[in-house]
Amino acid sequence: MFTPSKTFAGPKPGLVFTTVNSKTGYYPDPLLNSNAEPSSKKRRTGSPDTTSTSASTSTSISTSTLKSFKSSLLTLETLTNANLSARSLSSDPSTYIPSETSLYLHLLSLLPLFKSLDPDFFIPTILPTLIGLCTHDNSDIVTPSLELISSTIEFEGTIETLQSNNFADILVSNLPRMSSTELTFTLLDSVPYTTPSPLLYDYCTKNQTGSDALTDFLLSQDPKTVHEIVKDDSLLKWYHTSTDGEDVFQSILTCVRTDWKGVCIECEGIELFVLHLEKNKRGSALIILNNLLEDEKACVRFIKSSGLKVLFKILLNKFKTTRGGDRTKSWRKSELRTAINILWSLAKYLPEGIERERYLSKFIENEFTALERVVEVIVEYDGIGRKCMKKYLVSKEAEADEEDGEDLEGEARRRGIDGGLDTYFYGCEMLAIIMKKDKKIWAAVIEAVKVRGGGVSWIKDGCREMGSEEGEGI
Predict the structure, then answer these.
(1) Region annotation Disordered: residue ranges (predicted)?
(2) What average pLDDT score do residues 39-54 get?
(3) Which of 26, 189, 220, 428 has the most CB atoms lying inside 10 A of its own CB?
């Protein structure tokens, strides 16, 4: 039963506040009063679209209910146009606030309807109007408009409509004046921002929020564009001031895989990540350093920033961790493998000079403790990697792959590398390089390998499997 009311007096069970045929008040909720059974839910989640179910659902929706819903949408169009017209005719707020209030209240009345809306009952032509309201000067109008769009994001055709209306650009341009950006960033997950503009980068780094949306944006750009957008050290400052050092992990990793590596190094990124290692914030910092140390300049800066001290502490397990149980073991293994990769980079790229001498001297300290540890780690991962290969080759999965004509040897090698052979290969080449530079190191490595039942040919084989000729000189 219709209850007249000039203003919204709060939600009422079973009723929707709206205007129909110039009569404003509370009307029976069309969804609660229809006898429709749940339809096939034509959403984007991959649910089967059963035509017969949709057809039966459509016929069960009463004509009066459908008219009532359409009337609510028409009212929204009317109130939107009235407000825009009032705003265009005068800059005096008193002339357009009444129309704005009516529009706001009507948007609120639509929220419970949209949130419980069946996809087959949705009329997608309302989306352009809602998108337009997202550009409104009044953020109180923008917020419910975004919520209405969010409630239909999984409906078939919604994302395509949003993309064709540049919805992501509208979201990003509105970020600076939004009181709460959580919903905006949630919507950007479904409709990512891809315009090659620094707007999102500037907002996220200034406010230190939205790292996931920023990562998706950076990944969508080519290296040249990223280099133009990321022109300062804002990301590094964000990383530096974050409480746990992980907030911008993905964004920085995205950048260091592009031309931004040079910018990162020039902005003292290596020094910053070494500092995080010293503060026991090792996870992301160690991975980022591994990606940065790919040339002579970067490796020299790592040595000068006292990176060796903390790197060898990681290698020798001198850091404490708050992680417990199996998580500690998994974390430790990943950390060790990354440390070996960094040691390989330093052996490969450090030029002759004081930095390289400092690097080599770390292996000789404390009766070759670090050198023995390296041999221990790569012997362990040699065994783990080859077990992974063997496990695959004797599995039913390999039998099925063979029947399908797959390359079993190639797949087995990939499994082995993922399991630990990459650490073995990098470790062997690193050992081969430093053994040729110092006779003491050569003798210590041979002794360490001999204790574990091997010889110099084991290191040569590792280099050969990696495709390196470094082992031939030892």
Answers:
(1) 25-59
(2) 41
(3) 428
